[in-house]
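W.,

You were right to be curious about this one. When I first looked at the sequence I had no strong expectations either way, so I just let the prediction run and decided to look at it fresh. Below is the sequence, 419 residues in total, followed by the output.
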Amino acid sequence: MIEELKNTFENFNKKISKKNILAKTRLENFNKFAKLGFPNKILEDWKFSDFNRIISEKFKNINVNPDEQNKFNFNNYIKDFKHNKIVFQNGYYSQHSFEYESEDKVIFDNLKNGPSYKPNGSNSLNLLNNAFFTDGLLLYIKNGYKCKKPLVIYNIFNTNENNNFFNQKLIVNVEENSKLDLVICTINLNKVPIFLNTSNFFLVEKYGLLKLFYINELNNKDLNYNFNEINVEENSVFENLIFSYKAAFFKNDVLCLLKKNYSSSFINGAILAHNNDHHEIKTVIKHIGQNTKSYQKIKSVLDQNSRAIFQGKIHVDSCAQKTDGYQLSNAIIIDQDSEFDSKPELEIYADDVKCSHGSTSGSLDENAIYYLMTRGLNRFDAKKLLIKGFLQDSLETITSLEIKKFFLKKLEILLNEYR
């Protein structure tokens, strides 16, 4: 597949790069990717997710066609709460509306014309993103501005087999004493499988607050790798909720740097995997400043030969005294063919810290099922109620009331479809 991808890249780079410097930098990224290849289980970060095998099984070819930017009708926007929106169609910016905000306080641009990114690091999918990215978002919430309503980024796809590989970037800066609730909603309207590869960068400046939520309506043959790097400054807070379901492969890779004193991060996840799904949440929280705090809670439910993985690492720098770090992952495995893997890590170089981690997995409690059945529920509804209460524990951590109600309603809908 790498050799075929080389030809795809050559044609793509000729079409997309308007300047020689862009073409050169993209080529440097691709060449470094080609040496590394798609990640496989030999790599520690991918020991539970052999992506090279997964993509080879799911895709005969991955194709990029920058000429196909056809717009299509989409009006199925979230109705549960009022919000601002930015819409991407097949990887390209389409439209936006900031009707609830002062537009001079919310500054944004698309990334159709660059910039280029030097080939740094050894994450081959980030290098692939640097080589192939077509568009994205550059967003600033200006100093002292607190957004009145959430912003929803709609990432909508309706494409064909000749254009099934998409690479995007989001760069978001929440400036000093500012606030943003950001929902990223990814939807594939077509049955054509897609591979979506995103690399996102967030900066939360002093006294800033960023609440980030992920939800998708992908299909059971789609692949999505999502990398987030978050830099959190003094007295600022980052909240993240990942709701993962339906896609054949969905890996959320989170690197959060608590760089300054009194910075905090709260990362919660709910995975509902079935029908051979393979979902992973991987986090690295680096405590660098003093008096920093991190909290992680990941809940997974697996059925029908599915697999869920949580890899979570808390790293405490030698200067990061008074660190408070907490991490917990729990899983319910419904059938004998599903698998849950957990790899919690603590790496501590300071002596005045409070850090803990835990991980458990098991089946549904038969006594609890029996109790509910004695109260009039059938076995299916009893199991569904227990699963709802289990996953709801993560969703209840959402501090924005309207968004919490939306996610709880979505969970209810999914469980009603669940068999």
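Here's what jumped out at me. The chain is about 20% helix and 40% strand. And, maybe more interesting for your project: The first strand starts at residue 84 and ends at 89.

Coffee later to discuss?

I.
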